[in-house]
Amino acid sequence: MEAIGFMIAIFGALASVWFFYDRLFPLRKFSWHSAEKAASNISNQMKQQGYSPTIIVGIGRGGAIMGSLISGCLGHRPLLVIDRKYMWMDGRRIDEMVLHLHLPPALVERVLLIAGEAHSGNTMRMYYNFFQQMGAHQIKRSAFFVQKGCTEPLEYIGICSEKNLRMPWMFCTEYIRDDRSEEEAKAIGSCFDSAVGLSESSEKYYYIIRHGESADNEGGDRYSGITESLLTEKGIKQAQVTGRYLQGERIQRIYVSPMKRAITTAREIQAIAGGHLVVDHRLREIDYGEWEGMTRKEVFKKWPKLYTAYKKNPVANTPLGGENPQYVLNRIKDFWTELQTSPATQTLNRIVIVTHNAVSRILLGYLNEIPLENYREMRIDNCSVSKILCKRDGSVNIAKENYIDHLTNEGI
């Protein structure tokens, strides 16, 4: 009995030591067992819902490992691993895909995106948009570890937590990542701590701005969609004047297309009017395919019938290799809906959107309930401001459209 009592005393002492050690030096790493268990749980959820992916896409190293585990749980599924590169811009990480692949339609019928971690959701959103554009019929999103405050909706989650924790495949003790800027982390945290809608404003204002004059705008009437074209001196001045016009609006965030002419415009506005800069790929300009870089005269000379039909209905007569306006509308609607519903934007009521000619017209046409095939009838000038008022009841009022008085008053 004495021996048993001695053993119990030792066990109790060790348990006490471990309890206090854990409080002073909390464990910040998941185990491999937790990854295996999460993969099994995610697989079981999919089976219960009857979802059977035709391909599993692993995002980065963590996605590769989790994708392999899930593929094994499902018997076998093709596994594709695509990594991304990133850069930091104004305290926010901007992701770019390393590879852009073309896959058979049958393979992308049902795509499961799997990541090791999901902090802000930006990377997941980029991959979701990419496979949506590729024509994937059904896309599901999943991650082993999701940090509370992730703004991208995920269908399958392994573990959710507020803490930054190291994954089992991260052997470096310093490798604990937070993808959000300090400003975003605070905003998202306050949203979730106080529940959605606590700080709702009765009115939200959006300022849709086309970028300043680019070299292609100055040089002629060219189709410059995805073609990069830098701002002219006039374009930079237009952006600065627009920044001064918005200076008293208490701008909180600026969403901008990833194209250089838009980013330069946004930076000039930000330097004067303030606001946190966020690059969103859904705001990129429409792709004109084989018409890129050509003037309208050149296009008409080479494709007279298609160009004539395009002017009447650009939706039914897309340029060869170009992007259909319907897809542009789809990504813009997705972006707009997210602005209205995401917990990360509920505290914001002054948002600037810097984008392009076609995207601005399509978005304004959508808000005005104008048929998509008529979007080209609208006029949007460089650095014009379209002010949108959204009320709590969901109603939308376009207070200003293609406003340019701030430019003409400066003689620009």
What order do the helices and strands follow?
A: HHEHEEEEHEEHEHHEHEHHHEHEEH
Structural class: alpha/beta
CATH architecture of the largest domain: 3-Layer(aba) Sandwich
Question: What would you call the quaternary organization?
Answer: single chain
Number of H/I helices = 13
Instruction: Specify the CATH class of the largest domain.
Output: Alpha Beta
Strand content: 15-25%
Question: How many separate structural domains?
Answer: 2
What is the C-alpha radius of gyration, as a whole number of Å? 25 Å
Write out the strand line-up for the largest beta sheet, numbering strands in chain order.
10-9-11-8-12-13
Q: Categorize the overall geometry.
A: globular
Q: How many strands appear in the DSSP assignment?
A: 13
Let me know the largest β-sheet.
6 strands, mixed
Mean pLDDT across every amino acid position: 81
Distance between the termini: 95 Å
The helical percent reads: 25-40%
- CATH homology group of the largest domain: Phosphoglycerate mutase-like
Uncertain residue segments: 22-27, 173-200
- CATH topology of the largest domain: the name is Rossmann fold
